[in-house]
Design a protein that fits this description.
The complex is a heterodimer of chains A (about 200) and B (about 260).
Chain A: E1 2-5, H1 13-21, E2 26-29, H2 32-35, E3 40-43, H3 49-58, H4 62-71, E4 76-79, H5 81-84, E5 89-90, E6 104-108, E7 119-127, E8 139-146, E9 148-152, E10 158-162, E11 166-172, E12 175-178, H6 186-198
Parallel strand pairs in A: 1-2, 1-3, 3-4, 4-12, 5-6
Antiparallel strand pairs in A: 6-9, 7-8, 7-10, 10-11, 11-12
Chain B: E1 4-12, E2 15-20, E3 24-29, H1 31-40, E4 46-50, H2 72-80, E5 87-90, H3 96-104, E6 109-112, H4 114-118, H5 122-130, E7 135-142, E8 145-148, E9 153-158, H6 159-168, E10 173-178, H7 190-199, E11 204-207, H8 213-223, E12 227-230, H9 232-236, H10 240-250
The chains are: A alpha/beta (about 200), B alpha/beta (about 260).
Chain lengths: ~200, ~260
């Protein structure tokens, strides 16, 4: 069973609509004891880094997520802000400590002639190594909507890059994150969710 | 970033309508089927504007022969179940509670218009709660002045003035709608779009006036917005989205080349 973290301030309906369409079973997680019942976690989110961490703490999920992922090795897929919250800190909310499951910072997108900020829309994304359903073919279009991006300390965990070297997805063992929205990236995106639902603990 | 091509759906009392001069409305179909079709075609995004007065539909009409939802939010909930591309919803949004309800029903972005004019604190409040990325402003204009209340009330703002205010207050995108071109098929208002694209740093979506596929090419080539949107052309022409994309591809506009299923 997959648990979908609901921060409460963000729209998880797009994601749950996708999971329903794919016949993937899930429960909504708004409290720590439910987290123990699931074997995998999807962590969506929009809004600011500070607000996201604040919500996690109010729901008493901050420590339990760290425990389930780092000690119990439950696979997690962070989406957009959900991915950013896996890291240590963010330019968006200085002084707020993230989940720190991955080492690195979330920084503001640089000014570029390639995009406006917020960076909204479909962008070509280059696969550096296999990411869930994505294999072999090296370029895909995904839907993005963001103003910041993650800079992992260990660049070897960057699985997909987009545009001017912006981190689009990371994979470190059983920890997955994507900056783009798989639930809004049509078939390519839905395949990613399906593939995540099919991985088993210890087989990632 | 790829240039986006966005079909718009205008609804009234639960049915898709054709709009002209921002007033004539002809019922042309059931939104659930049409939105599903758009999603199957792998369109870049869908804009959906409900022009009904109030949130509950007038149920006196029973000649549609199909089940329609009783209010805006229920219909949105039905529609969003089959959409796996970004969906923006607008029409009658007045409060942060409206925005919250729309996001919970499965929209990804909320389109604000008159609500921001009537309550000048709405945008700032909404930005703080939901973030800029969830907020799109629809700017209806005619002869360089912004109109509210579905084109009925002329404001004191020029297009640029109002757009600057919106950007300052944290809007995520601007849907720029020349209401004098609504339903006319005479091409986009290139000069205004170009001016706004140059002045603002947020993405601009151009709407109003698309009559044939070449209008999309021209708008991208001359004015360079992040996206172009259109309504009628996608309802009345067979496989119109596919043909429009191919036309852009042939002119080397940097679009997403995904054609879905037909």
């Amino acid at each position: 069973m997959i648990g979908v973290i609901n921060l409460g301030n963000s729209n998880i309906t797009s994601l749950t609509n996708s999971l329903d369409y794919l016949n993937i079973k899930y429960i909504i997680i708004e409290e720590a004891n439910k987290l123990e019942q699931v074997d995998k976690i999807i962590f969506p989110g929009v809004g600011t880094f500070g607000n996201g961490i604040d919500r996690l703490k109010k729901l008493s999920l901050f420590e339990p997520i760290i425990k389930e992922v780092s000690e119990n090795k439950k696979p997690i897929l962070g989406i957009c802000l959900g991915m950013q919250l896996l890291f240590e800190s963010s330019d968006e909310s200085k002084g707020v400590k993230g989940l720190s499951l991955l080492k690195g910072q979330v920084i503001n997108l640089p000014k570029s002639i390639n995009f406006s900020i917020p960076r909204i829309g479909w962008a070509e994304s280059t696969l550096k190594f296999d990411f869930l359903s994505l294999k072999e073919k090296d370029k895909f279009d995904f839907y993005y909507i963001h103003s910041l991006y993650v800079k992992p300390n260990n660049t070897d965990i960057i699985s997909i890059e987009t545009d001017i070297g912006i981190t689009a997805a990371v994979k470190s063992g059983h920890i997955y994150g994507c900056q783009f929205h798989p639930e809004k990236s049509h078939i390519m995106g839905l395949n990613i969710l399906k593939s995540f639902s099919e991985i088993t603990k210890g087989n990632d | 970033m790829r240039k986006r091509l966005i079909p718009c759906i205008f609804l009234k009392e639960g049915m898709i309508v054709r709009s002209e001069d921002f007033k004539t409305h002809q019922v042309i179909g059931n939104p659930i089927n049409q939105v599903k079709r758009f999603s199957d075609w792998a369109v870049d995004e869908i804009i959906y504007i409900d022009m009904s007065k109030g949130n509950n539909y007038d149920s006196r009409r029973d000649d549609h022969q199909i089940k329609i939802s009783s209010n805006k939010f229920d219909l949105l909930e039905e529609i969003s179940k089959n959409v796996f591309v970004p969906l923006s919803f607008g029409g009658g949004v007045r409060t942060v509670n409206d925005i919250s309800a729309i996001l919970q029903k499965g929209a990804d972005k909320v389109i604000l218009n008159t609500g921001m004019y009537e309550d000048r604190s709405l945008l700032k409040q909404a930005r703080n709660i939901f973030g800029s990325q969830a907020l799109v402003a629809c700017v209806d204009y005619k002869n360089d002045f912004v109109y509210f209340k579905h084109g009925k009330v002329k404001s004191e703002f020029t297009v640029i003035e109002w757009c600057m205010v919106l950007e300052e207050e944290g809007i995520g995108e601007v849907l720029l709608n020349d209401i004098s071109r609504d339903g006319k098929g005479c091409g986009y208002d290139i000069s205004t779009i170009k001016k706004v694209v140059n002045e603002l740093s947020v993405p601009i979506i151009a709407l109003g006036g698309a009559g044939d596929y070449y209008d999309f090419n021209e708008c991208f080539e001359e004015a360079d917005p992040a996206a172009v949107a259109a309504g009628n052309i996608f309802h009345f022409k067979e496989h119109s989205y596919y043909h429009a994309k191919k036309s852009l591809e042939n002119d080397n506009i940097d679009i997403r080349k995904e054609y879905g299923i037909f």
